[in-house]
Amino acid sequence: MDHRNFHYLLSKQNLVSDDDVVDVERDTKDEVGDHFVKGRKRFACDEIYLSDSDHSEEGLGIELQHDLMDKVGLVESALSELAHEHQLTIAEEMRDQLSALEAEVMDENEKLASTLERVERNTEAQREMSRKFDMQYQRKIAEALDDHLTAVQRDHEHRSQIEERRIRDDAAREEAKRKEKALQEEKARQEMIRAEAKVQARLEAERVEKEKAAALEAERKAAKEAAAAAEKASESLMNAPSEANKVPKDVTSHKHSAVVLSFQMIHQMTEGGNTIRASENAQKLEEKRLMIYNEIASQNEALGSGSNKVKQATLRGAFVFQICFQEDRACRKYEMEIARRIRTITGTKENVRVKADELIKLISDSTCPQSISIAMFAQKVVSLCVNPTGSFNSAVYAYGRVIVLVTSKVPLAMDILIGELNKVCIYAVPKYIIYSEAAFQTKEAYYKAIGYTEEDGKIESTDSYVDRLSAYMKLYGALVQTEVEGCQNLHGLREGWAWIARFLNVLPANLYTAAALQAFLEMAGFALHKRYKTQFRKMLDVIAKDFLTALKDRGDAKLNKVIVNIRNYIESNQFLKEPEGWRLRSNLESHNFTPESDHQQQYGYQQNRYYY
């Protein structure tokens, strides 16, 4: 029930006075005002009906008619009109405020959207700029890297071309020298054949003359016997000179036979000289080292004329000397010290440095002549290959490093060491001796010539010889590939490259040469590939196509293992991997310690145990 009906009922029933009506109207106005104020604050218009339709006006007219019929109809009508106008005003204001708020919200939304769009555009622009900068930077880096790689490749190609040209020139010179040498040898052989023919013709003529003289003498003797049968005494006297004349004839015949035999032996030795296969440069270098080797041997012989004894012998064109210290205890002590230092070399940086310094001090010590110390050093290093232990393959690189450090301070030691190695292993020259019955009386003599050892009158087995040969070549390969910072390797990679070229150009393919080649590649192949790159791969192609094919054509079952090993080395690119022991360790791990074998029993005293 609204306030107008409430006033109407009160006036009808006369239950309140006019003052009460005024108070009620005031309270009603306040209530209506508070209601609209509260509604404005909350912007809620749910309880206000703002329709301006005809139905509302008609209802209002009916209410006015009812109010006019009442006693207090004027007051209520005025209140109703005021309330209605107030409601319309409030509703209009609220509509305006809502419209303003909606417009403001829409404006703010538009501003926010514009701001967000601008921020996104700026972000995208910065991102695009960063992307462009990155692309430019990467492009510059790629261009610089490409230029560098192009320069490096061009430099490598230039070096490769120079090396190829040098190899071709060397090969051409060696081929020309070989042809010239072969021509000279052929001329010498023809001259020798002609000289031999002349000698044989002369000997034949002498034999015919002797036969004629013998026939004449026989006729003369027969005539004398028939004419002077009575003079037996004189005939006896005549027969005695005849017998005497026969003896000189026999002796003369023997002398001529001896001359022919001597000539044939000389011819056989000359023919035997052609059984040695080696390049001219390798032979010259071997002869040069032999001269140095002989000079040291002469010095040691002069020094050993007193208390020391020097044994000399000639073997395979190399001068062998062994120093025997039976009385000079000082030199014997140095020999044992050098041997101990060499045997205790391990694959650690500190050990290699210490052992090299100690060996240099021992060799340079004036107490023992340096020529003798150098000979000891060379012999003890080479003797490591006689009975190699299980750790030989990993320790051989440390041996090579110590050798380079020592020979950088004592250069003469390198020539003596290489000479000693050439003495025990002809394939380190490289050189090969072909078997010839004219040059060697027996097979045993040939085996000794190529390096077989004899013990208790028996030649060692082929397996033992091949194992020892491989150890020698591993030591040689480890030596030539060694590079030490601050030191010059007097027999380095250049000599290793020359060795493999001479080896493939001159030596035949058999079990011995294949074992030597395999051992050398396993030790020096990694370093040779690092230095020569494409050229080394070409060399491996030659080995795979020519050398291995020649081995296979021999049809020997003993060659299968070495053929498989060399082919596997090439096909699996093992030359790209660092061999075991190639890089020295910074310290010695405990599990790598193995007790050293007692090598000093030959000196007749108990040795302390060393570990390596």
From TrEMBL:
Pfam families: GLE1 (PF07817). GO terms for cellular component: cytoplasm; nuclear pore cytoplasmic filaments. It is found in: Nucleus, Nuclear pore complex. One of its GO terms (biological process) is poly(A)+ mRNA export from nucleus. Keywords: Coiled coil, mRNA transport, Nuclear pore complex, Nucleus, Protein transport, Translocation, Transport. GO terms for molecular function: inositol hexakisphosphate binding; phospholipid binding; translation initiation factor binding. The keyword Ligase does not apply. Residues 152-186 are annotated as: Disordered. It comes from the Eukaryota. InterPro entries: GLE1, GLE1-like_sf. Residues 91-129 form a coiled coil. Its main location: nucleus. Belongs to the GLE1 family. This is mRNA export factor GLE1. It comes from Nicotiana sylvestris.
